[in-house]
Amino acid sequence: MSTAITTIKNLGPAYEEACKKAGIHTAEELRGLGADRAYGRLLSSGSKPHFIGYYVLVMALQGRPWNDCKGEEKKALRKRFDAIKAQSFDKGLSEFERILDQIGVVEKPAQP
């Protein structure tokens, strides 16, 4: 059985579309991946990193309201988010710059 991602409280159609773009098609797949791996896939598929989007996902998978994240828990989630972003997101290049790089317009730094 497959359940729509939008059945998870606080995850709407836009989040579901981003998940589909990342190859995550059901609520079961999303839960199976967990928040960190799923968010990494979202970033790798072109979603822009946004801390609120990350912690909304964490809270949603825990069945908690999105704004329940506070204090030390929020600080810990920020560290996890920063680590995921560092591993999964194009470090400093926008999508436009990435395309320019692919066609040879942006000069690559020399490798040591």
First-residue to last-residue Cα separation: 52 Å
Q: How many helical stretches?
A: 5
Pick out the low-confidence regions.
none
Radius of gyration: 16 Å
Oligomer: single chain
Question: What's the rounded overall pLDDT mean?
Answer: 88
Helix content: 55-70%
Largest sheet: none
Strand residue percentage: under 5%
User: How many β-strand runs?
Assistant: 0
- Tell me the overall shape: globular
Label the structural class.
Answer: mainly alpha
What's the order of the H and E elements? HHHHH
Model description:
The chain is mainly α and 112 residues long. Helices cover 57% and strands 0% of the residues. The radius of gyration is 16 Å and the shape is globular. The N and C termini lie far apart (52 Å). The model has no long low-confidence stretch (mean pLDDT 88).
What order do the helices and strands come in, and which of them pair?
Elements (H helix, E strand, L loop, with lengths): L12 H9 L5 H18 L6 H11 L9 H18 L6 H8 L10
Helix pairs in contact: 2-3, 2-4
Quick structural overview:
This protein is mostly helical and 112 residues long. Helices cover 57% and strands 0% of the residues. The relative contact order is 0.12.
Key structural traits:
112 residues; mainly alpha; 57% helix; globular
